[in-house]
Design brief:
By secondary structure, the chain is an alpha+beta fold. The chain has 5 helices and 8 strands, in the order H-H-E-E-E-E-E-E-H-E-E-H-H. The termini are far apart.
Length: 152
Amino acid sequence: MSIDLLKLVPLFAGLGDDDLAKVGQLCVPQTYTAGATIFKEGEPGNRLFLVLEGEVRISRNIPAAGEEALAILKRGACFGEMAVFDRSDRSTDAIANSRCTLLTISRADFELLLEFNPDLALTVLKALVRVLSGRLRAANDNWKAVLAMSVF
């Protein structure tokens, strides 16, 4: 596992090479064909994913409207981490937008890594707060735009 990819992942960008190597040891590659479902909304979230090659579409099914694509993720993107950290079900669907190779890390392995490496854990959790804060700000901006349009 090349630590160069892990350096691209916002959750791991602040880690040194030794810690990145520890994360890399947990990664298991999986390949998906275009259109394959990686996970569905409501399924248990027991692993996070890193895009090594290809594209992944994150979407939700909106009643009476169909699928709404929320993001197209490319090399270096991380997804599925929310359900891993809060031990909840998946909040979206993830679909291979093209043939893709992903690296997966199981929740159990990731939790053990964090538990036995407190400095690594602090760095990752700080990065997680920044990532989730950015997503929350983007969601707030989207809602503001929707509300502004509904006035007209």
